[in-house]
Design goal:
Helix 2 runs parallel beside helix 5. Strand 8 and strand 9 form a beta hairpin. By secondary structure, the protein is an alpha/beta fold. The N and C termini lie far apart (about 105 Å).
């Protein structure tokens, strides 16, 4: 059948009116502007990822328990196992390592940071917002290097407490839930506070070994960009010559190079610097004018 103006009548059936669906749609449409306004007001949106940086080790139940809390609180957010063999009981060395690794995560990421030999004591639990990333952890120096190297850093003391707080597992019970809140764009659950009093007492670079990898290579707390290209380094009685990569020197040669995270790293080509040179976390590293 043809109609006036040669317009064919529609054969599509209109959807049946459902009051419940209609009301939900109208309610959702009304709240969207409020949600957008809240996000704009706080300047925070959902984080792209949560990163875990701990000394818990790669075995045992601890990492899994922390990730279980994050799965419950932010089930669709990626959780990155950045490092779980940070120097144990050594927040000072771990702090330089954290500062070197953190830039790999996109802005807006949230870090759960746990190297906490003083867990359960009077040490503060803090949040640090530094260069568009959040760091949650103990106020024991672990976050100091990140704050010192940041262009902008703000500190909060965590005042929120869960119903159950183990005195020995703040990573699971306190830091992980707080990180989840921040990752969801919620306001920091605490109060603004002053930086740690010893913040400016930390050196910009640490002339020590801060990490040993499975190959026996020894990362130092020295940023390679601050060392002239022809710098010679010494640890114990071994001298390390500068190279761009391992194969620039014969097998068995002690070398140092800029590692993938910008730190000066000591190595023995096709060998273990840790085993052959007796290197440990905390071993002092010296800049020397020449090798004996």
């Amino acid at each position: 059948m043809r109609t006036a103006g040669n317009i064919q009548p529609s054969t599509t059936r209109a959807a049946a009116y459902n009051p419940a669906t209609f009301n939900r749609t109208i309610t959702r449409a009304a709240t969207l502007p409020l949600e957008r306004m809240a996000a704009k007001k706080t300047g925070r949106n959902r984080a792209p990822a949560i990163a875990l940086f701990t000394d818990y080790g790669w075995t045992g139940p601890y990492v899994g328990q922390v990730k279980a809390i994050l799965l419950r609180e932010v089930p669709r957010l990626p959780v990155i196992d950045l490092l779980h063999d940070a120097p144990q009981f050594n927040p000072r060395a771990a702090g330089y390592l954290l500062a070197a690794l953190a830039p790999e995560l996109p802005p807006g990421s949230v870090f759960v940071c746990v190297v906490d030999p003083g867990v359960g004591t009077q040490r503060r639990a803090v949040m640090l917002h530094a260069d568009s990333r959040w760091y949650v952890g103990p106020d024991n120096g672990l976050l100091n290097v990140v704050a010192r190297q940041a262009e902008r850093a703000q500190w909060w003391e965590i005042t929120w407490r869960p119903q159950h707080l183990s005195p020995t597992f703040h990573g699971r019970d306190l830091f992980a839930p707080v990180a989840a809140k921040l990752a969801l764009g919620k306001s920091p659950p605490g109060r603004r506070c002053d930086p740690p009093p010893d913040l400016n007492g930390w050196p910009a670079d640490l002339d020590e070994v801060i990490y040993l990898d499975p190959f026996g290579n020894a990362a130092t707390g020295l940023r390679a960009s601050n060392l002239p290209a022809d710098t010679l380094l010494r640890a114990h009685d071994r001298c390390f010559q500068p190279v761009r990569t391992f194969a620039d020197a014969p097998a068995g040669t002690a070398v140092w190079y800029e590692n993938a995270n910008g730190l000066a790293e000591l190595a023995v080509n096709q060998g273990s610097a840790a085993a052959s040179c007796g290197l440990l976390v905390g071993t002092k590293v010296f800049v020397v004018p020449e090798c004996p």
